[in-house]
Amino acid sequence: MEQTKSTKKKRSRRQTSEMLQGYGFLIPAGVIAAIFFIYAVVFAVYMSFNKVNMLTNNYSWNNFQNYINIFSDPTVKIALENTLGFVAIVVPCQTIISLVIAYVLSSRGVKGKSIFRLIYFLPTLTSSAALTLIFMFLFNVNGPINQLFIGMGLYHTPINFLNEPFWSMKVIVAMNIWSTVPFYMTIYLASLVDLPYSLYEAAMIDGASAWQRLRYITVPYLRPITTYVLLTGIIGTFQMFDQAYIFSGGTGGPSNSTLTLALLIYQYATTGLGSGIGYAAAIAVLLGILIFVVSRIAEKLNGGLAK
């Protein structure tokens, strides 16, 4: 009996020691998170209730005025519509396309899978700024895309993709889908490796088609991965800034067609429009809430569809 108590005490001490060691390893990351995330969020919320003059470091409390101004600001409405449209197109497309490509490449009998994986993954190795410049070159009035389509007889007059409001955001959408699909495809491929092929064999014996195998075996099995893809995709697309900034030179043009909420926050914070950085902080807070709400909705929908 005494030996059992002694063993339990030693085990408890060892567990306590391991726990303290674990917390010790977490302290550096916790300090960094506290400084650069928690403090930044709290300070941004505080600034959103102030009219801030960064030159004089003067904070003037104005209650909810910044938030009230947001709902009467037509530029915020345009940026919100552009952002929501961007998210609504890019996230489903990048999720579905990456899943289908991963499913095809994981199938038996497909030759040259390693080469295809390498080719598909190459865009991920390129920086976002470089990709934006490449697409601006491709879709230039005298660029390869116009020359190709004119050569194919699809149209006769070059389209000014970069400077026409109807086309400008569509180019950014195409670029984002093309550049993000390889990353998510790799994640799906890594998960499909662990999916027992015997499930597919049993389904094929029962006469299940390729679509039925994808719908009733692959998709439910990959539900946790799809949740991750959806959440990271939503967060990334809502925060899209660099492509729109480079594409429009920071203006959000042409005619605000590429103006996103992230770019608008930058404009208000750096130009002093509205109430300056306090107003920009208020938009940032609402953007964070919007990302959280949409992410939760997508997570619930993914859970419902997988059942």
Automatic annotation (TrEMBL):
Presence of the UniProt keyword Cell membrane in the record: yes
Pfam families linked: BPD_transp_1
Mode of membrane association: Multi-pass membrane protein
InterPro entries per record: ABC_transporter_permease, MetI-like, MetI-like_sf
Record keyword Cell membrane present: yes
Transmembrane feature ranges: 20-49, 84-106, 118-139, 177-200, 221-241, 277-298
Localization (cell): Cell membrane
The ABC transmembrane type-1 domain, residue ranges: 80-298
Signal peptide boundaries: none
SUPFAM superfamilies: MetI-like
Keywords of this entry: Cell membrane, Membrane, Peptide transport, Protein transport, Transmembrane, Transmembrane helix, Transport
UniProt record similarity statement: Belongs to the binding-protein-dependent transport system permease family.
Protein's name in the database: Carbohydrate ABC transporter permease
